[in-house]
Amino acid sequence: MADHWIKFNTSVWNDKVICADTAHFCVWWYLKSHAAYQTHCALFSGEVLELQPGQLVTGATAIGRALGIDHTRVMRILRHFVAAGLITQRVNNRGRIITVLDKKSGKTDRQTTP
């Protein structure tokens, strides 16, 4: 596995959405740490998609199971992140494609290292 870095600006501690409580921060960390750091293919609803840096295919149940948080709470947290402009998501009955956004530009926030 290639080494990669996750960029956290110190202003994250002042973000009222990400730091609303520990569950919000844990979900944010999960999204940042599991998002693609380079382009690759993934299966979503029976079709092969090319994931871009900052995207991941997952579900609220998978996130909740990994973090020990109820999946309905994870869904609420993801809705908060969408409303705050932190992520976008494409949802169907089998999962989600989540894109982690840079708050200022709306572009993906993922950085790779050489």
Describe the structure.
The protein is α+β, with helices and mostly antiparallel strands. The chain has a single domain (13-100), classed as Orthogonal Bundle (Arc Repressor Mutant, subunit A). The protein has 3 helices and 5 strands; from the N terminus they run αβββααββ. A hairpin with a 2-residue loop joins strand 4 and strand 5 (95-100). The longest helix is centred in the N-terminal third of the chain and has 13 residues, at 22-34. It is globular, with a radius of gyration of 14 Å. Residues 110-114 have low confidence and may be disordered.
Q: TL;DR?
A:
With 114 residues, the protein is an alpha+beta fold. The chain contains 3 helices and 5 strands; from the N terminus they run αβββααββ.
Entry keywords:
114 residues; alpha+beta; Arc Repressor Mutant, subunit A; three-stranded antiparallel beta sheet; two-stranded antiparallel ribbon; 5 strands; disordered C terminus
Topology, element by element:
Layout: H1 22-34, E1 40-44, E2 47-51, E3 55-58, H2 60-67, H3 71-83, E4 87-92, E5 95-100
Antiparallel strand pairs: 1-2, 3-5, 4-5
Helix pairs in contact: 2-3
Please tell me the overall pLDDT.
84
* Largest sheet: number of strands, sense, barrel closure: 3 strands, antiparallel
Overall number of domains: 1
Provide the CATH topology.
Answer: Arc Repressor Mutant, subunit A
**Strand arrangement across the biggest beta sheet:** 3-5-4
- Kindly report how far apart the N and C termini lie: 14 Å
Shape type: globular
Please state the second-level CATH architecture. Orthogonal Bundle
Q: What is the CATH homologous superfamily assignment?
A: Winged helix-like DNA-binding domain superfamily/Winged helix DNA-binding domain
Beta strand %: 15-25%
Q: List how many beta strands DSSP finds.
A: 5
Order of helices and strands: HEEEHHEE
Q: Please count the helical segments.
A: 3
Overall CATH class:
Mainly Alpha
Summarize the amount of helix as a percent range. Answer: 25-40%
